[in-house]
Amino acid sequence: MSAVTPASRPWSSMAFRLALVYGGLLLLTMVVVLTVFYVQMVAVFSHRMDQEAKLDLQRLQQHALQYGEASLRTEIDRLLSDGVDSQTEIAILTDADNNFLAGNARILPRRTLNTFGLRELRLERHGRVMTGRVAVTQLPSGNLLIVGSDMDALEDIEERFMNASLTAVVIVLLLALSGSVGFRRLVDDRAASIRQTMLQVANGDLGQRIPLSADNDEFTRLGHDINRMLDQIEQLMDGVRHVSNTIAHNLRTPLTRVLLQLRSARHLEGLEQQRLLEHLEQEVQGLGTVFDKLLQIAELESGMRRQEFAVVDIAGLLADIADLYAPVAEETGCSLDVVVDGHPGALGDGDLLANALANLVENALKYACTAPGGQVRISAWQQGDMIELRLQDNGPGVPPQRLPHITDRFYRAHEHQPGHGLGLSSVQAIVQLHNGSLHFANLTPGFEVHLRLPAAPGAERSPPLTPPASASF
Amino acid sequence: MPRFLIIEDDTQNARFLAEGMRELQAEVCVCPDGVQGLTQAVTGHWDAIVLDRMLPDGFDGIKILQALRSMGNTTPVLVLSALSATDERVRCLKAGCDDYLTKPFAFSELQARLEALLRRVQSTAPAPVLEVGDLRLDLLSRHAERGGRTLMLQPREFRLLAFLARHVDQTVTRTMLLESVWDYRFDPQTNVIDVHISRLRNKVDKGFEQPLIHTVRGVGYCLSTQTPAP
């Protein structure tokens, strides 16, 4: 017996793999979102810086045109000292040879600028070297005006963003991993209770059931289904055990009887011995009959005989049965009547159907026709694609609590009557082989057997060969 | 003296069968396997062959039967089988056997069926008129009379009597009657055949000094002008 162990390697656990893959997907999504966010943010930020630089440049240019360059220098100083953006803003006025005239920074290295418009420029401000995003233009005097802002702020934001993102990624990775391990343990625990039960069942303890939790999740439902299956199997096993027990009982008891009587036959002589031996022969033949019946039922239940099915004329069959059994009824002053409406034909085996009907009629005769006045009445007709057969008698019926068991093998509703308790089992097996149904009911007074058989396809369309048979014997 | 060949691998069973048949003044030969059995069946002259359905070495009853029939041998064959399924029976009949008996069986049943087989060979074409003592049956006009007095028989009763008359002096079992007269193959649990015979007896034997229909205890019935030995 191998104990229920969790999967040995983490990767072999489905829950672990699923959680991990899910974590990976989450991480990927996050990276994509952050990247998009980052690109958008940087773009917006630099665009704004560019716009500001361009606007300031235009304004200062305008100022220079209006009030002359001298006024421009004071305007630059005023701009730089107004306390707005003073940490980042840059404004420089140089001559064409890049000699400093006014402003808060110097261009590095000292060189002549020949690209104008928006650009990045290395600058030195308050003794610190940095990159500035600037707009450059040449004034009519040939001097260069440079306005813009320090890119350090942007770079700072970029750095912070990167750090935050990395931290988030690491946290997500850790969460995904620990989540996977957690999920795996959770699923393992749930699966383990199922596997534990299955293992016990496999070892022969059919009474075990999977403990079910209150919530209606997948495992509970799976457990519920398995429990139902186990119920069914247990019931079938009980049935098989019951059948084997009854078979053993019903074969062993007469065998024991025969053996004992054989012993006593040794001590007898002449006619007495002869009689006992004849009796024993009958006992053994009875055993053979029980055996044959059991085999027949088993054969019928396996459905092997369906290939030989042909259309069976129910009216003809019932007429034969009546012909065979009516004299038996008359013996005790009873009657057996058959009424057939139309010309129903069933797809089946004539011998088997005759056997089933003979069994039912014999039962009815046995219980209803013990005294004069007993009546057995069989009626048959076709309804839709089913043939309905009703067999009614005015006998004592069957005690209601015994009714559900009368088709069980070896079950005998009337124990004082002779019989093996196999008749109705074989009727049931024959009806099932024909895909029909069999119902029993008590009448007041009497007993009714209701048998339904599928009609042979096309049989109901053929016109009756003889007028509706109504025979009375 | 009739000569029977028994092909049966169960030696005990075969011995009992042989003893039973010898008691009936028959000459019996037993073969325990298929090859030997077929050789005997072809070379000897037999009135009937009792053949076991299942024999060792894969050379079973059906194969022997087919081989025998394909050689044009028409000796009546009765198959004994432990297989009770109807399709088994049909298979054997198709292969050319004349009768089929399921194990376990009473020896009397086998005896009755063997006698019927012998009779069938002797009278292949049934006479249109059967006569047993003063009983006379006209099979064409379906008329029955005894001692010149017409018997009022129902159609089924006529068939029953005709079957008994065809097997005159021979015991027929209840199963044989149900098979031949009603053409159904099943075991009735009640004494249904007895009731029919008793009604027939009322019409045939009542008012006559000598009964023609006799009960053979534990086996069946016999139509005869003599009382059969018990």
Could you name the key traits of this structure?
heterodimer; A: 473 residues; alpha+beta; Helix Hairpins; 3 domains; six-stranded antiparallel β-sheet; six-stranded mixed β-sheet; rod-shaped; disordered C terminus; B: 230 residues; alpha/beta; Rossmann fold; Arc Repressor Mutant, subunit A; 2 domains; four-stranded antiparallel β-sheet; 12 strands; 40% helix
Describe this structure as you would to a colleague:
The complex is a heterodimer of chains A (473) and B (230). Chain A has 473 residues and is an alpha+beta fold. Chain A has 3 domains: 1-208, no CATH class; 233-301, Helix Hairpins, CATH 1.10.287; 306-472, Heat Shock Protein 90. Chain A is built from 8 helices and 14 strands. Chain A has helices at residues 14-67, 69-80, 152-202, 218-267, 270-301, 314-331, 350-368, 423-433; strands at 89-94, 100-103, 106-107, 117-125, 128-138, 144-150, 310-313, 335-340, 345-348, 375-383, 386-393, 437-443, 446-454, 470-472. In chain A, the strands form 3 sheets. Chain A has a 6-stranded antiparallel β-sheet with strand order 2-1-6-5-4-3. In chain A, a hairpin with a 2-residue loop joins strand 10 and strand 11. Chain A starts with 13 loop residues before the first helix and ends with a strand. In chain A, 26% of the residues are buried. Mean pLDDT of chain A is 84; it is low at 460-473. In chain B, helix 2 packs parallel to helix 3 and helix 6 packs across helix 7 (174-182). Chain B has helices at 11-23, 34-43, 61-70, 86-95, 107-122, 155-166, 174-182, 192-204; strands at 3-7, 27-31, 48-52, 77-81, 99-102, 129-132, 135-138, 143-146, 149-150, 171-173, 213-216, 220-223. The mean pLDDT of chain B is 86. A 5-stranded parallel β-sheet of chain B has the order 2-1-3-4-5, with helices on both faces. Chain B has a 4-stranded antiparallel β-sheet with strand order 6-7-8-9, with helices on one face. Chain B has a 3-stranded antiparallel β-sheet with strand order 10-12-11. The longest helix of chain B is centred in the middle third of the chain and has 16 residues, at 107-122. Chain B has 230 residues and is an alpha/beta fold. Chain B has 2 domains: 3-122, Rossmann fold (3-Layer(aba) Sandwich), CATH 3.40.50.2300; 129-223, Orthogonal Bundle (Arc Repressor Mutant, subunit A), CATH 1.10.10. The chains are: A alpha+beta (473), B alpha/beta (230). The A-B interface holds A 278, 281-282, 284-285, 288-289, 291-292, 295-296, 299, 304-305, 307-308, 320, 323-325, 327-328, 331, 349-352, 354-355, 358-359, 362, 365-366, 419, 423 and B 84-87, 90, 102, 104-106, 156, 182, 184-192, 195-196, 199, 217-218.
